[in-house]
């Protein structure tokens, strides 16, 4: 009886493994189903790039900002020569009813934290329950508007109307649709080992951003074509999949996924690799390459890029001790 149970269990396990292998192959097949469809001319590829709109990109960054900080903080990256165009769109958006500037009580509400209001109320033996707007109204009624100015500077903020949010979301939806098509084409290039070509168009896409300033390094655009090509070439030539025992049929897809991670900062790459080959993480953990068993993808990246693999906890402790000294 025991032998029969063991045989039955083995049959179920084998059936599961066969089914899983078919599923993994299907993922790869679907991912590159259009592999034979080649878009070769530069004009065709350029036409696939998602089209940025300077005005909406600016609107995305100025919403909920202080009006007087229009070109400070996250909008400081707007090149000076493009600021007039951005301001023109901004003014037209106000006319169109897409945004408005807060004033009065609303400006007070968005300028400070709720704790700022409750402290004033507590200090003056007044109720402290209610929304921020209710607390502000209570302070104004009992203590006067001047009391609120003691907290700090009251600023007017840029707020999108419902219509403005709708227009911005329409732009984002269309952009994301275009980006998905372009991204797929780049993925196919990497899968065909057209590394230099893929890197060229990735950087071309980044440079098409309206806030990209080619004369001044910008944190939004971290890699030149040469840098990205160097990284992706290292990935494609890495022997880590052989060393960890990943079946050869999954190599191309996994390495392409890593190229996409470095090209588009796709931090979902770990999930995608597990979908391609669901035993991948365990193979990493079991390998002699990985030191940080709780974070095997950290070592995976380090190995691919040619960095020394170190114990993260020991490194943190070492840095902590250096600070104390």
Strand content: under 5%
Main sheet makeup: 2 strands, antiparallel
Q: Mind telling me the C-alpha Rg?
A: 28 Å
Unreliable stretches: 31-36, 215-220
Oligomer description:
single chain
Helix proportion: 55-70%
What's the shape?
Answer: extended
The helix count comes to 17
DSSP, total strands: 2
Strand order of the largest sheet: 1-2
Structural class estimated from helices and strands: mainly alpha
Task: Describe, in short, the structure shown.
This protein has 325 residues and is mainly α.
Please write out the topology.
Layout: H1 2-31, H2 42-48, H3 54-62, H4 83-95, E1 99-101, H5 104-111, H6 114-123, H7 132-143, H8 145-149, E2 158-160, H9 162-191, H10 195-207, H11 225-236, H12 240-244, H13 251-264, H14 269-276, H15 280-286, H16 296-305, H17 312-324
Report on the architecture of this protein.
By secondary structure, the protein is an all-alpha fold. Among the domains are: 31-51 and 179-324, no CATH class; 104-149. Helix content is 63%, strand content 2%. Strands 1-2 form a two-stranded antiparallel ribbon. Residues 31-36 and 215-220 have low confidence and may be disordered.
